[in-house]
Structure formats: structure tokens, C-alpha cells
Amino acid sequence: MVTALPWSKIFAEMRPLAGTGRTIAAGNESPRMIDQLPEQPLVPLDQMGIWTNSAIDTAEVRIIGGASFARLGDTGIVLVEPRIFRDHRGMFFETFHSQKFAEAGILPAFVQDNHSLSVQNVLRGLHYQIQHPQGKLIRVTRGEVFDVGVDVRRSSPTFGQWFGTLLSAENQRTMYLPPGFAHGFCAHSDASEVTYKCTDLYAPQYERTLIWNDPAIGIPWPVENPILADKDLQGKLLCDADCYE
Questions:
Q1: pTM for the whole structure
Q2: Domains of the chain by range and CATH?
């Protein structure tokens, strides 16, 4: 069963403070969602702007080198809020730092980078590779998307469950999905550019697709009639799909 989310409110609240016209003094750091929450090791997912139909309801948050890393239980999913510096020239932040990410539990080496452009209401996914599975480090460089991972590991306690968040060029969040997840996103702005690093190379012969609107998964996408590729229209239901053991 799909439970609708209040998308207008979500998109408004998840657009960051830096995009509201607030003046940020030279050399100051841009405010982050995590900075507005009480200082505690476990933070409720809804306060972090993470949604799921799983029983996981908190994230373990660590601050490493000024960046926030929120780990979702034993799923392997990590949501990263970078440390952003802004001044009269613009802004600067690290999109990836191998040592800091490894300390946060993101250990694999990345071997391929991908970049896509999608117009509003395009939905891509839900994709995975049944052999040579790919972990993905996902961020948005233009526009905003609702980004989702679905656990397709039969041995996992969260098998068939989804995790999603809003990634945008304004909030500069990054989501890491480990191997074993199907990945998809829906473009909410006029044009959205998504870039992601992969832990293994693309292998089209092993690519698989879950149908985007499988009622057994129940993702509350912010679009009723998405623009889809032919291969995504032919995606399989979870009950019929090839999955990892």
C-alpha cells in the first residue's frame, strides 16, 4: 500500500537556508539541517529528511572533518551533508574525501562516474546489476530529485523496503547506496542533473529493472504519470525479479 507524502511541504522545507536569500558573512559555513537538530548520536529519520517504509526510524550521525554522515542501521546507506564554505566569490566544499568517507564506513573504491540530465517528471529506475553489483554515491548538481534505494538482498532484514530523500543542487546532500540496492529517482525541477560514482563498471547484460510502481514496495513518488524509458516501463515486480541472496 502506498502512503502519500506531503510533497509541497517537503520540497519547501528541504530547500536549504542558503537558498532563501540569507546573507552569509565571508568565510562562514553554510547552515545544514543537522546543525538545527539536538546534538545526539541517534537522530529520527524524519528530522533528517529521510523517508522509509522499514522499521528503521533513526540514523547514527557522526561529524567527521565538519561533514555530517548519517548511517541508516545496518543497511549500509549513508546520507552525507558536506561542510560548505561561502563568501562573496561563491562557495567551496568537498564532494568526496576517501579518508573521511572510509571513516564513516564508505570503503569501496569507485571506478566509474555517471552524469544524467532529466526534465521535470522523468522517473529513472529502479535499476541494479544482478552480477557486478554497484554501490552508488549520488548527488545533484542542478535542480532537485527524490532519490530512492530499494533493498533487493533476500537475506537482508529490510528486503523489499525503500529509503528515500530529496537531493538538490541547493542542499548539496549526497546519498551512498551500497551494492544490493536498486536505485531510482524522479526529477522534480524543470531540469535536474544527477551525478554518481559507482563501485563497479556498467555491465548491461546483468542490468535488471524493478517496476517503479510495484504496490508491494509502495514508493510514494511525487508524480502520478512519470516520463519513463521503455526499459523502465518493462520493469518487473519484486516477486518476479532476480534478487541477491
A1: 0.86
A2: 7-19+26-240 (2.60.120.10)
